[in-house]
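Sample 1 of the test manifest.
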Amino acid sequence: DIQMTQSPSSLSASVGDRVTITCRASQSISTYLNWYQQKPGEAPKLLIYAASNLQSGVPSRFSGSGSGTDFTLTIGSLQPEDFATYYCQQSYSTRQITFGQGTRLEIK
Amino acid sequence: QVQLVQSGAEVKKPGASVKLSCKTSETSFTKYAIHWVRQAPGQRLEWMGWINAANENTKYSQNFQGRVTMTWDTPASTAYMELSSLRSEDTAVYYCVRGSLIVVETLYVFDIWGQGTMVTVSS
């Protein structure tokens, strides 16, 4: 199975900050990488697909980049509604789809 | 807006089975697949498999092979997921999610999620 590892596991930031979350795959996955946001008690929400494509309706302050094994999710200017947990997911190995362990973004 | 509406919470004893439902408002559901993803308390998301609503073909995660069965009811526009031989580690929120069959690269991109069903396995 392809292992997905996110860093950091948690971070504290302030409204207006620029934040970057990293996701690393245990082997190359090209750009088959998706990002989700999950708020407490809610289902995850798709933010970015294929590493850098913004899902319809998602604010442009969210962006994604990377290919191969290293990927980043960047939030350009944090808003109060952005405090949540973020997950990466690889869709390269369809034999076993896997997710990262999550990054919890908290208010400083 | 397409919605996936899931059945209510379940409490089961170890060794039992549970069958969850997921009704879609999607009218072109044959263009989509329904996946099931679960999340145990404090754990990462875990993919279980998917069903093609057009032909009812299934693909299951190796982690659940032999224990999971996914089915589709066309007249009811509803997907079902049955998990057998339940154990305490199966306690989790189970989500049905949509993937598109239109472009193969988007089959495993989960753009619509159900609200989730909590399954508790306890003696």
